[in-house]
Write a structure and sequence with these properties.
The chain is of the alpha/beta class. It has a seven-stranded mixed β-sheet with strand order 2-3-4-1-5-7-6, sandwiched between helices. The longest helix has 24 residues.
Length: 204
């Protein structure tokens, strides 16, 4: 069975922050399948569900971003889920809002949640789905934290609603058809429909 992990920070204060894009993506699947997450035995909320005869898990760590790896390791070990079947969904400030990037593996790219998972799992070999959260304002090392913890503006929230079905379908494609089909169909900017991009497999 596959596991979908959405990264974010728990609590109402973080609900519409950019760093919670992974939570938003998982919510899009929950809404579509009309299910909800339940508190787990560890530091997570999770659910087992089914789509097109494929059973899979959805999970949100409740550890806060910097310790996401603790929850992912506990959940995957308890259920004996191979690392290649764990899709981690998270935000990327270096990509514009609307852009999706699916990869088979890679480095943390400076993302603390991914860094924590790499450390806990002792591996780079897990699939990931990056969601662009960037805007026209440049993000530097100095203002990175403030930016990712800032809330989406009203017009950006409207764009996220447009993006929601693509987030959902990308995740469900991974579940039912695997990583390659997810990469081939969803590695592009869905808020710029005139722009076509070839799928790439860079590991970064």
């Amino acid at each position: 069975m596959k596991l979908i992990v959405g990264l974010g920070n728990p609590g109402i204060n973080y609900e519409t922050t950019r760093h919670n894009a992974g939570f938003f993506a998982v919510d899009s699947v929950l809404e579509f399948l009309n299910i909800s997450l339940k508190p787990g035995k560890g530091n997570w909320y999770g659910a087992e569900t089914e789509y097109k005869d494929e059973l899979f898990y959805l999970m949100k760590p409740t550890t806060f971003m910097n310790r996401s790896g603790d929850a992912v390791l506990d959940f995957s070990e308890e259920r004996n889920i191979p690392i290649k079947d764990i899709l981690v969904v998270y935000d990327d400030f270096q990509l514009p809002l609307g852009m999706l990037r699916v990869r088979m593996k890679g480095s943390d790219g400076g993302h603390n949640g991914i860094s924590s998972i790499i450390y806990s799992m002792n591996s780079l070999e897990f699939p990931r789905m990056r969601i662009g959260i960037g805007n026209e304002n440049p993000v530097t090392v100095e203002n990175y934290t403030d930016f990712v913890l800032s809330k989406f503006q009203a017009d950006e929230l409207e764009k996220l609603e447009i993006l929601k079905p693509y987030l959902r379908d990308c995740i469900l494609t991974f579940v039912t058809e695997g990583i390659y089909n997810a990469m081939n169909r969803y590695n592009r900017n869905f808020l710029a429909p005139s722009e076509t991009e070839e799928t790439d497999t860079e590991e970064n």
